[in-house]
Every structure is written in C-alpha cells, then in structure tokens.
Amino acid sequence: MDVRIETIPAGELKGGVVPGQAFDFGKAFSDRMLIMNYAPDRGWHNACIKKFGNFSLSPATMCLHYGQLIFEGLKAYRRQDGRIGLFRARDNLARMNASAERICMPTVDVEETYDAMAQLIALEKNWVPHDEGASLYIRPTMIGTDPLIRLKASSTYMFYIICSPVGHYYANGMKPTGIIVEDSYVRAVRGGVGFAKTAANYAASLLPAKKAEVAGYDQVLWLDGVGLEYVEEVGSMNIFFKYKDRLVTSQLNGSILPGITRDSVIQIARSWGMQVDEEKISIHALCADIEAGRVEEIFGSGTAAVISSVGALRYKNRDYTVGGNEPGAFSLKMYAALTGIQYGRITDPFGWTTIVA
Ligand SMILES: *Cc1c(COP(=O)(O)O)cnc(C)c1O
User: Fold this and answer.
1) Does residue 148 contact residue 33 with C-beta atoms inside 8 Å?
2) Cβ 258 under 6 angstroms from ligand 1
3) Which of 155, 228, 325, 335 is most buried by its number of CB atoms within 10 A?
4) Which residue, judged by its Cα, is nearest atom 13 of ligand 1?
C-alpha cells in the first residue's frame, strides 16, 4: 500500500506539544491524519496522510443512520531513550478486523495498515508529549459512506486515524474509584455486538453512566444481559479481582470487549507465577467474598487509564469497601509493569512494543 503524503504549508502547521503542556482529554488533535477509502472493485485505496480537517459527507451517509462505525484506541509513547513506541498496535488492528466482520464492514490488511499508522506517528512525533505518563492517543476509525438511507451494509467505506495528545491520567496519584453495579440497564447481550468496538455499545452506556454520576459514582459495573447475575466489565474497562493467591477476571463470552490491556495483565501476572482464572463471576458470590475480606483488590484495565483501582462498590443499595479504599500493592505493581514496558523503562519480554521514530 502506497501512502501519499500531502505537503502542508509550514505556516499551517501547529508543530507539536511542549513539555509541561496540559491537555483536555480528546479535545486537541495533531496536524495530520491518515485517510483511505474502500470500494468493492478497488479494495482499500487512496491512502493519504494529509492535514487534519473536516470531512464533507452527505446527510444521507449510511453510518450516520445505521451505525456502521467501529473504532480503536491505542497510544504512542515517548520512551526514556527519546524514541517513539507503540504498544501492541497490530493487536488493535486485528481487533478492529473482528469488529468489522461483526458489523459487515471490510477488514484491513494488518501489516499494511500498521505501516501506514507508523508513518503517520513518525510524522507526528513532535505531538507525542514529553511528560511522565502523558502520551499521544491514536484513534483509528472506520465508517460506512454510501449516501443512501436504505437499511443494508454500505458498499463504500472510509478508514481514518486521528491523534490527540493526552496528559497523565494520574497526575495527582492513583485514586480509587467508586463503582455502582447496574442492575436494570445492560450494555450488551449474548449474540449482540458487545465484543466489537462499535458506536452502538457506547450510545447504550450513556444513560446508565449519567445515572451513576448523579448518584456519586465514577463508573458503572455491567452485569450480563441475560440474567443480570454475572460480572461483565466496568465502564469501558475490563475488570479484575485479586484474591490472596489468584487473580480473577470475567471470561470472554461475546458480550465483553476483549481488552488488550486485559490480555497484557493476564500475561504479566502469569509471568510472575500467579494463577489467573477467567471465569463466570456471580455478583452475589463476589459481594460475599468482598464482605468476608477475601477480595483484596479490584481494578479496571484499559488503554486510557491502564490500571484503575476500585475502592468502593455499590450493589442493590449496599456499599462494599475494598482494600480500605486505597490503591492496592498489586494494582500499583501491575501499573508500574505495564507503563514500564510502554515507556521503555523496563525490558519488554513479550515483544509488545514497536518503535516508529
Ligand atoms: C476499549 C474497551 C476496553 C479496554 O480495551 P483495551 O484494549 O484494554 O483498551 C474495555 N471495555 C470496553 C467496553 C472498551 O470499549
């Protein structure tokens, strides 16, 4: 795949970020974006890196009506040695293909798209923040673009990548979050689209998230969409429960998003000799375990926050506190291990990091 690089007049470039700069998550964007188009007879074509800017789309564009929209989220890190690295980027593209198949969209060639993304990030290296814990958030997106309001799969698509510099999630130290177990709304159901990073899942989560916020909680813990009994995930993170000598997380069942951070946590914990079980977790058994002091730590995992400690949980009008509402030693150790690999502070025995500049 040849990527055409449009020249942008120097006067139109903002140039990048400076050390110490503050960012409002997801609000500022780098100078350039990558775009390519799909047509049935041409496959993916017209790959181009150009100036970040608005699109012009017909109001009838299919993705605006029927939700053929999938995305990914990953980060570029400025490493200790000054080079720019990505973390498991090919895994994000492979997951995007799994989402694409579920939503009847075309897949991308992982290697070619990785190379195009790497070229974009290399050009945007001045946009990768310098400060501890900050990074350049990368958002690959794919939309169905036929200008047609007839319910069927689009025949044409657009794939694009935009980049947004983001600050340290824990600039003031990791504070435990409070979560509320949602016992009426569900995020996803068996046989649905829960495992896909597709727009519909996030639209469905907004009202329960707002309810949780009004009630004074940071995140919603989702239960399964069939019997509201088994723990699925939290907000847009996967969830882990640390017992004395094992780590437990929900088994992937089609309605849970298979997080890359989740998989990384599992592999790191196992490399430490820890037993990790992926299983069906009953909310009732879990609450009993918390009450009996058997659950030492709870944390969420996801690209944005990496590890998010959970200090309090509310289920059916009862409050449960975990780990004295302080981030636990295991959560902090896992956070240090993951970010250590991402920023190149420790060697990466898993081959997860790739260098782009
Ligand atoms: C993106 C996402 C996650 C976390 O996935 P990572 O690959 O670890 O960032 C978990 N749950 C949901 C619903 C998500 O959208």
Assistant:
1) no
2) no
3) 335
4) 236
Q: Are residues 116 and 47 in contact, defined by beta-carbon separation less than 8 angstroms? A: yes
Same fold, 4-166 and 177-342: no
The residue type found at 263 is: D
Which ligand 1 atom lies nearest to the CA of residue 201? Answer: 13
User: What digits encode the pLDDT tens for the residues 127-178?
Assistant: 999 998 999 999 999 999 999 999 999 999 999 999 999 999 887 788 999 9
Q: Is 188 in the pocket of ligand 1 (CB under 6 A)?
A: no
Q: Is the shortest distance between the CB of 72 and ligand 1 below 6 Å?
A: no
Name residues whose C-beta falls within 8 Å of residue 281's C-beta, 6 or more positions apart in sequence. Answer: 230, 231, 241, 248, 250
Encode 74-107: b = buried (16+ Cβ within 10 Å), e = exposed: bbbbbbeeeebbbbbbebbbbbbbebbebbebbb
Q: What residue ranges do the domains of the chain occupy? A: 4-166, 177-342
Domain 4-166's class? Answer: alpha beta
